[in-house]
Amino acid sequence: FALETSLQLELLGTPNQLEAVRARLTKSPASFRDPS
């Protein structure tokens, strides 16, 4: 459980996560970027 929580917290607020939320709210396609 702790590992899952830790991994999820690393993703919160990332550009791709914010883009997913923006796309969902505006009902438009998401434009994800490769984080590497």
Percent of residues in beta strands? under 5%
Q: Quick check: average pLDDT?
A: 92
- The helicity comes to 55-70%
Roughly how many Å apart are the termini?
A: 26 Å
Number of strands: 0
Provide the low-confidence segments as ranges. Answer: none
In the residues, how many domains can be counted? 1
Radius of gyration: 12 Å
Structure characterization notes:
The chain is mainly α and 36 residues long. The chain has one domain (1-27). It is 61% helix and 0% strand. It has two helices and no strands. It has helices at 2-11, 15-26. It is elongated, with a radius of gyration of 12 Å. It starts with a helix and ends in a 10-residue tail after the last helix. 0% of the residues are buried.
In short:
With 36 residues, this protein is an all-alpha fold.
Any descriptors?
61% helix, 2 helices, mainly alpha, 36 residues
Secondary-structure map with pairings?
Elements lengths: L1 H10 L3 H12 L10
